[in-house]
């Protein structure tokens, strides 16, 4: 194996891989796999659950081959070489040689055959389809904050991805809130219902930009092919809770509010909020919304803003951490909020760039 590469070309592509956590401290996962094939360099980073491949097109003559080398040592060497260095990297007698002018390093290696082969993850009966990266990223970004974090109900520790006919949908919930993003495309999709784990989702959104990606879905894994990357993740095995009943009952009281004003008011009153409960109290009455927080023993913050509301006086409590992430992603000036009469939960629905968003937040007992 032998190739030349500009320092920045390698580092820029490596940084998008990120350093994946080695959960069980398996030695080979402390290495990266370098592979040259058809004048293309593949940089492969992996742990027990995820594999990320970055592809770099090379110029000049190169010798095919593959090897694994310590991630930290290799990257630290490249970081400390002069900017825009044209580096020669070659494998000789199981040592990886890194040269630039009068600078030379020799690193120990491990055979590429020791590196896990995730090609075995995607096997027979796989589904294949394409999605627009921008759409897919928006579907994820407007739901992923509702994922659970280390919930004993393990199937909530990820996003449910569903495709059927011409609909693609992402759903996330932690049991106290539910977020759903839906998009209709112009072609039929195969039926798919999988749960992508949180650690996989956190990596996926870093790669999604423009253009289409191809998705391959096996029994236990998902793989994405982009222009300069290949991403593979294990899936969560389990049945996602049936949330459809939450969407059926639409009885309640609606009010319209400026989303930016609402967000700023929430942030102001949150200066005085009980860190233990993190509760914001909302009172609707006569086209006004009073937002109030309390901090023991006697500190209080409140703000009143104008809304469009007709109906009886309503008072509810909600967790501030559940509503702010929704408002941070909102791109609509005015939104409608439904307070359901059945359980006083808050439902926010809106459409942006033909993507339908729905968020439900359960109330705090006051």
- Estimate what percentage of residues fall within beta strands: over 45%
Describe the sheet with the most strands.
12 strands, antiparallel
Number of strands: 22
Gyration radius, in Å: 25 Å
* Mean model confidence by pLDDT: 90
Short description:
The protein is α+β, with helices and mostly antiparallel strands and 366 residues long.
Descriptive notes:
By secondary structure, the chain is of the alpha+beta class. Helix content is 17%, strand content 47%. The protein is built from seven helices and 22 strands. It has helices spanning 7-15, 71-79, 133-141, 198-207, 244-248, 259-269, 320-329; strands at residues 2-6, 31-37, 40-46, 50-57, 65-70, 86-92, 95-100, 103-110, 127-132, 158-173, 177-197, 212-217, 221-225, 229-234, 252-258, 279-285, 288-295, 299-306, 314-319, 334-340, 346-352, 355-361. The chain has a twelve-stranded antiparallel beta sheet with strand order 1-6-7-8-5-2-3-4-14-13-12-9. Strands 10-11-22-21-20-15 form a six-stranded antiparallel beta sheet. Strand 20 (334-340) and strand 21 (346-352) form a beta hairpin. Helix 6 (259-269) runs antiparallel to helix 7 (320-329). The mean pLDDT is 90.
Descriptive terms for the model:
single chain; 366 residues; alpha+beta; twelve-stranded antiparallel beta sheet; six-stranded antiparallel beta sheet; 22 strands
């Amino acid at each position: 194996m032998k190739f030349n590469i500009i320092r920045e070309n390698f580092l820029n592509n490596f940084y998008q891989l990120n350093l994946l956590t080695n959960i069980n401290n398996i030695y080979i996962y402390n290495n990266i796999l370098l592979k040259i094939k058809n004048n293309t360099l593949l940089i492969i980073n992996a742990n027990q659950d995820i594999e990320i491949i970055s592809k770099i097109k090379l110029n000049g003559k190169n010798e095919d081959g593959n090897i694994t080398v310590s991630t930290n040592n290799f990257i630290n060497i490249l970081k400390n070489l002069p900017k825009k260095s044209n580096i020669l990297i070659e494998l000789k007698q199981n040592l990886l040689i890194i040269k630039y002018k009068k600078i030379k390093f020799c690193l120990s290696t491990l055979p590429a055959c020791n590196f896990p082969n995730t090609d075995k993850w995607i096997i027979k009966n796989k589904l294949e389809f394409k999605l627009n990266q921008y759409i897919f990223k928006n579907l994820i970004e407007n739901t992923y904050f509702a994922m659970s974090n280390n919930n004993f109900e393990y199937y909530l520790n990820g996003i449910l991805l569903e495709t059927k006919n011409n609909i693609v949908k992402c759903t996330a919930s932690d049991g106290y809130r539910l977020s759903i993003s839906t998009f209709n495309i112009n072609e039929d999709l195969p039926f798919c219902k999988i749960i992508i784990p949180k650690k996989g989702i956190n990596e996926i959104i870093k790669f999604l930009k423009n253009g289409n990606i191809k998705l391959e879905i096996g029994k236990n894994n998902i793989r994405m092919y982009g222009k300069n990357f290949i991403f593979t993740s294990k899936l969560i095995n389990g049945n996602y809770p049936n949330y459809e009943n939450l969407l059926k009952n639409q009885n309640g009281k609606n009010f319209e509010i400026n989303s930016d004003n609402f967000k700023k008011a929430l942030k102001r009153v949150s200066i005085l909020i009980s860190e233990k409960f993190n509760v914001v109290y909302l009172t609707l009455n006569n086209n006004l919304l009073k937002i109030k927080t309390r901090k023991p023993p006697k500190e209080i913050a409140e703000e009143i803003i104008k809304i469009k509301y007709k109906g009886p006086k309503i008072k509810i409590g909600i967790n501030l951490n559940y509503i702010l992430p929704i408002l941070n992603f909102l791109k609509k000036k005015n939104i409608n909020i439904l307070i359901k009469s059945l359980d006083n939960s808050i439902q926010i629905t809106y459409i942006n760039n033909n993507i339908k968003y729905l968020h439900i937040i359960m109330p705090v007992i006051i």
